[in-house]
Amino acid sequence: MTQLPDDPPAFDVQPVLDAQTRVAPHLPLLVLMTLIMLIDGYDVFMLGKIAPAMARDFGEPITALTLIFVLQQAGLAIGSFAVGPLSDRFGRKRVLLLCTIVFGLLTLAPIWAATLRDVAILRGVAGLFLAGVIPNAAAMLTECAPPRRRAAFVAIAFSGYTAGGALASLVTIGLLDRYGWESAFVIGGVVPLVLAPIFALATDESLQFRIRRDPGDPRIKAALLRIDPTLDLGHVDRFALGSEAARRAAPRQGDATAVLRDGRAPMTLALWLTFFLALGLISLLGAWMATFFNVLGGVPLSRWAAFSLIGFTGGLAGTTSIGFLMDRFGRIRMLLILFAGDALAIMLLGTLPFASSAFIVALVVWGYCQAGGQAGINAICAQAYPTGIRASGVGWAFGMGRVGGIAMPALGGLMIASGASLAQVFLVAGLIPVLIAGALVAVHRGIGTRTLGH
């Protein structure tokens, strides 16, 4: 009997991915992810800009909007925990496309709402799908980018999120008086519906996900040749990701509980604490900073609004540059420097004379360090988990951050009610970045220096 030859071994794609240096094949994905993140940031922040106009139109007091803010944050938190495992199981691109279309439609829906309660319910449901953007964007960009550009890719996309907050302000200034609060929802709903088909046609699912889902997928070969046209894949019909031992050790696709197994629990818990504190601090200052300066410092709201744009410019610079700095000088080192700067800048904002040159410098440093630090944390989290649970790891970390975003703003009200001075309020807020830095040290120890770099 003639013995048939053994099947040829699968082609290991990992060395190709690790050796790639070309950025051009991935630029369409980076550009579209940045635009989708922009509309994500716009959608999250635009509600606070139009809240007074909505309350007047519905004949309700401004306090009636509390339910809208709470349900939107709750939807974001629940969605962050739910979407990650679905993405790891069914594909990043597929889930992100669905989330983009649905949250676009749900953002349009409040235009026809009869009551603020209806708006609150719609925003809560929209939050479930809006939460799918960040974990999938981070996972896809981490998996496609050249190794030395992964942090930069994620950070650039998150600069879109930061810019979305400014876009919400500009839209409010330009359209609110003339076209009403509905115009903000029109833009927030139409833009993702326009981006969705472009994203569907111009991007591919990540190679790592495709290989784990179907090692014989013929589209894998075409994607590899776009990365390295010199590859000889003429007789290759099966692909693998890493050595056989590594594949056996990898967690099952979509098994979200694996973020707490196989030695990952200390790292994951430290990441959860980091995100709880970091996103909680952003929510605390976003909700109360104008009130702190107005009530405790006597600064008119309109004057603070103008100066807040200065902080935004620092934030945009931070999210744009932090990825390159992390890739060049070391991820944890740069983040510890940023959060030390964040702590110092926040404390100085409460003591320096408002609008002085030193105050403006502190405001720019605060914006740079806060936004850059958050973008850096996002990049580290995306790289901390293997492909099979990457979206779950990022999604669950953001879920804990959303919980912090619901809980920590209560601290602002307590400090005002206690009669604290402006300096005391900002001293307390400035201690939170110190705690974040401590949590990052624990992340560094949990994940290991080989993955995090120097």
Q: Distance N terminus to C terminus?
A: 59 Å
CA-based shape: globular
Q: Mean of the pLDDT scores?
A: 83
User: Could you describe the largest sheet, including whether it forms a barrel?
Assistant: 2 strands, parallel
Radius of gyration using CA atoms only: 23 Å
Order of helices and strands: EHHHHHHHHHHEHHHHHHHHH
Oligomer: single chain
Class by helix and strand content?
A: mainly alpha
Helix content: over 70%
Provide the spatial order of strands within the biggest beta sheet. Answer: 1-2
Tell me the number of strands. Answer: 2
Strand content: under 5%
As residue ranges, the low-confidence spans are 1-5, 449-454
**Secondary structure tally, helices:** 19
Task: Give a short synopsis of this structure.
With 454 residues, the chain is mainly α. Helices cover 76% and strands 1% of the residues.
